[in-house]
Write a structure and sequence with these properties.
This protein has 11 helices and 8 strands. The chain is of the alpha/beta class. It has an 8-stranded parallel barrel, surrounded by 6 helices. The protein is globular. The structure holds 2-phosphoglycolic acid. The site of 2-phosphoglycolic acid (PGA) has 13 residues, from strand 8.
Amino acid sequence: MKKNYIAANWKMNLTRAEGVNLAKDIVTAIKNGKNKYMIAPSFPLIQDVGAVLKGTNILLGAQNMSAEEKGAHTGEVSPLQLLDLGVQVVILGHSERRNIYGESDELINKKVKLALSHKLEVILCVGELLEEREAGNAVTVCENQIKKGLAGISANELKNITIAYEPVWAIGTGKTATPEDADAIHSSIREVLKSIYNETAAAEMVIQYGGSMKSENAKELLAKPNIDGGLIGGASLKAETFAPIALVE
Ligand code: PGA
């Protein structure tokens, strides 16, 4: 049995003081948790939240990263700057980056490679839009995003990658994929990994579910054989809503 990997994506929320308080509350609430944990605050909070997480069982994450190391890239944040802040994990290809800010699979792939070259762990997000699901294309969309996102990545590098399946229609909407639906897509993602890499790599890949995961549905989702964790948005903004998910074994 793999440990669950429960990650908090705070998105564009909280001031530094609020983030520090929330991080402290979460540290206390899950200090005896047996799973793998990560918190990704927005960039301005990383240093202060990082100081709270140091020496705890929670990794420090970032929600995005530039595809370049340095130079004339106004508004971008370099992997070198993230490393300098103690960041260990970076979320890439989140659907909000893909769909609101137009990030392409090619750009995301470039970021994945750059992050890995700097020994940052990656959470690569994939997931279909509502119209893609309704047209029966959910599996194909995820397959394409995986193939393009992982282009040029070796089987050996996969151990530093987690995949988050986040159906876009379930993010922040209160609608969750049923455990059966989510598990079916996770299983198809493993088939894709098997076809690109091998059976062991596919079986070992940690695949998180994201999209309105909350204490009420986490246990059922995480009990599914192909669901190895969660990427949590809304419910990660309070220790009392995040901890019950984080503590599911
Ligand atoms: P949500 O967000 O839990 O608020 O649906 C998940 C995510 O986008 O990572």
